[in-house]
């Protein structure tokens, strides 16, 4: 477990080389820059180069156009210092105007096609009437309205039975009644208002439609077909326009993105009069790489200093772990970041998380499935969780061999045990009554060991920081370790019939450490040369007594919390036993289907729950004892 050693870097040059430096600076994916404001505020005469970014607005405008046109742009990498924003904007706006013109024609055609389709439906509704449509719509005293009315509005027409109109419904669908109503010229406005209040949608028969309904159908269908041909042509024009401009716009977007990134990087540049500097941290191993990046710029000076050489800056933390532990850093980052001078708990989490998960989810078949799914997630979806699943799947498989379970089958591995160990069946029967109590005792024992291990880590951390009070007197310090360890060891000996709780044992290893924990705050003040009880012993005693009671209770709850490890071992075995029983009852193809579905359900449901429960143990039972996570995340310009 390691935290990468940092070096403080100063990149300095004359102002005329600023753009050259920035072009290389924005590509440094191993450099943690410090904002110029940290230096400008503390030194008179220094300046920052932060100013309004003219690139951001243009880039946002172009991105809006790309989204509006639904362009699928290729990924390009363009870098240039010679650019013309007006020319870029003019080109993109010209393309967009052509697209808008074509899109407007497309939308108009779609609207007309829909209107003609609706009119065709209405004409079909009256095609049995042998009547000239021209005569029908040229009536002087009778007014006819074709359209559609929401179904729930049809029922409301009964409230207007005394009004002068005739209503005719031709057919209905799930939403509308396709209909017409007839009224006189005198009451036209009144009746139109009634139907409008009922959300009547009028469908007009186009002016080019003449003659009988049969002839009108032919005219409408012909018009619809012609409109579809025009629509197809417009779509082809738009598609060709997109194809024509995609690469050019991709170049513009890429160049603007790079320029915007470069301009944003100016907030890390400190103005030194005629010179400038960029300050940040890199890992010690990356120093040669940094110098090589700027080797072509002879005018640029790179100064390498110790990480703590500038008291205004705190070194960031960059985790450095091996193959197995590396993906578990995601859990560390969820909780916090280790201090630069602290230690990286990632390997501890990797081992304990994998062991606990494997024990709680022990099954050879399901463990292999977890490995395969994790590999797919990491390989094709680039998900760090998939890399974690590969490792915990390995431990699930290992414990599956210990428990003798393959997709819930408890006898499949018996020949293996016989061939290797000479046993007739698997050595551990999880669901047997003789195994349950030892399992729960082992689970509590694991919890007690991990709690003491966490306390030891806390002692080491505070000893390294020269924090004597927390190291010696806290519940997670030496006093806490002696008190908790004495209880655990004493309980262990008592369980095997050996009593160690003598008066001297209780006094020295239980009472005295508990008293030191009780007096932690006064003793820490004493170490600092202050009064032990500044507010009086009575006030301290009342507050300290209840705190001590809470501490003792936390020791118990933290230990018993690990019972969930044994509980999930039993839960997993019980669920798979239920699946197996249902498989046997179903038999044949049905049994196979039950087996597949049951295993998938258990893997998804219980796998998720076990993963969360183990993470809870890591955070609340272990991290809370030794890990604060108050460090600064190592973050590059591209993060």
From TrEMBL:
Annotated GO CC locations: proton-transporting V-type ATPase, V0 domain; vacuolar proton-transporting V-type ATPase complex
Pfam families: V_ATPase_I
GO biological process entries: vacuolar acidification
Segments traversing the membrane: 353-376, 388-407, 435-457, 478-498, 504-524, 562-582, 589-615
Domain of life: Bacteria
Location relative to the cell: Membrane
Keyword annotations from UniProtKB, A to Z: Coiled coil, Ion transport, Membrane, Transmembrane, Transmembrane helix, Transport
Topology within the bilayer: Multi-pass membrane protein
Major subcellular location class: membrane
GO MF entries: ATPase binding; proton-transporting ATPase activity, rotational mechanism
InterPro entries registered for this protein in UniProt: V-ATPase_116kDa_su
Coiled coil: 217-244
PANTHER family on file: V-TYPE PROTON ATPASE SUBUNIT A (PTHR11629:SF63), VACUOLAR PROTON ATPASES (PTHR11629)
Homology family: Belongs to the V-ATPase 116 kDa subunit family.
Record protein name field: V/A-type H+-transporting ATPase subunit I
Organism: Longicatena caecimuris
């Amino acid at each position: 477990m390691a935290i990468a050693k940092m070096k403080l870097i100063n990149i300095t040059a004359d102002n005329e080389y600023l753009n050259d430096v920035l072009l290389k600076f924005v590509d440094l994916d191993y450099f943690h820059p410090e904002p110029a404001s940290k230096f400008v505020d503390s030194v008179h005469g220094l300046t920052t180069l932060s100013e309004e970014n003219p690139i951001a607005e243009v880039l946002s405008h172009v991105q809006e156009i790309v989204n509006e046109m639904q362009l699928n742009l290729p990924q390009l990498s363009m870098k240039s210092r010679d650019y013309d924003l007006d020319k870029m904007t003019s080109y993109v706006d010209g393309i967009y105007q052509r697209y808008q013109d074509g899109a407007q024609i497309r939308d108009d055609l779609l609207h007309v096609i829909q209107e003609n389709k609706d009119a065709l439906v209405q004409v079909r509704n009256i095609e049995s009437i042998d009547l000239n449509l021209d005569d029908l719509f040229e009536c002087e005293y009778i007014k006819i309205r074709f359209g559609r009315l929401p179904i729930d509005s049809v029922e409301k027409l009964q409230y207007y039975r005394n009004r002068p109109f005739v209503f005719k419904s031709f057919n209905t669908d799930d939403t509308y009644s396709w209909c017409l109503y007839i009224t006189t010229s005198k009451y036209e406005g009144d009746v139109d208002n009634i139907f409008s209040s009922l959300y009547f949608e009028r469908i007009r028969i186009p002016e080019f439609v003449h003659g009988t309904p049969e002839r009108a159908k032919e005219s409408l269908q012909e018009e619809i077909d012609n409109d579809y041909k025009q629509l197809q042509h417009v779509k082809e024009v738009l598609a060709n326009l997109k194809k024509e401009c995609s690469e050019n716009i991709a170049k513009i977007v890429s160049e603007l993105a790079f320029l915007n990134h470069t301009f944003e990087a100016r907030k890390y540049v400190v103005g030194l009069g005629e010179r400038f500097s960029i300050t940040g941290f890199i890992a010690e191993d990356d120093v040669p790489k940094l110098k090589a990046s700027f080797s072509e710029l002879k005018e640029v000076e790179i100064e390498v200093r110790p990480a703590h050489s500038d008291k205004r800056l705190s070194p960031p933390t960059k985790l450095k772990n091996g193959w197995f532990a590396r993906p578990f850093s995601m859990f560390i980052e969820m909780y916090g970041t280790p201090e630069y001078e602290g230690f990286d708990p990632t390997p501890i989490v990797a081992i304990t998380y994998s062991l606990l998960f494997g024990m709680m989810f022990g099954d050879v078949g399901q463990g292999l499935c977890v490995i395969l799914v994790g590999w797919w997630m990491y390989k094709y979806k680039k998900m760090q969780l998939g890399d974690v699943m590969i490792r915990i799947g390995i431990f699930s498989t290992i414990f599956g061999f210990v428990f003798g379970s393959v997709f819930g089958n408890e006898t499949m591995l018996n020949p293996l045990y016989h061939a290797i160990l000479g046993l007739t069946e698997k050595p551990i029967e999880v669901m047997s009554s003789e195994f349950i109590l030892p399992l729960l005792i082992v689970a509590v024992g694991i919890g007690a060991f991990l709690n003491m291990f966490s306390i030891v880590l806390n002692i080491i951390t505070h000893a390294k920081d020269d924090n004597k009070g927390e190291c010696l007197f806290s519940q997670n310090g030496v006093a806490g370790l002696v008190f908790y360890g004495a209880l655990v060891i004493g309980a262990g000996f008592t369980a095997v019939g050996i009593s160690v709780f003598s008066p001297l044992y209780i006094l020295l290893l239980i009472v005295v450490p508990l008293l030191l924990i009780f007096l932690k705050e006064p003793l820490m003040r004493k170490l600092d040369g202050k009064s032990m009880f500044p507010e009086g012993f009575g006030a301290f005693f009342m507050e300290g007594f209840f705190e001590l009671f809470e501490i003792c209770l936390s020791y118990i709850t933290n230990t018993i919390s690990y019972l969930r490890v044994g509980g999930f071992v039993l839960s997993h075995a019980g669920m798979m036993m239920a699946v197996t029983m249902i498989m046997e009852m179903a038999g044949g193809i049905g049994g196979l289907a039950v087996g597949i579905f049951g295993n998938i359900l258990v893997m998804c449901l219980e796998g998720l729950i076990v993963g969360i429960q183990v993470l809870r143990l890591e955070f609340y039972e272990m991290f809370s004892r030794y890990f604060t996570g108050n460090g600064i995340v190592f973050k590059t310009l591209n993060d």
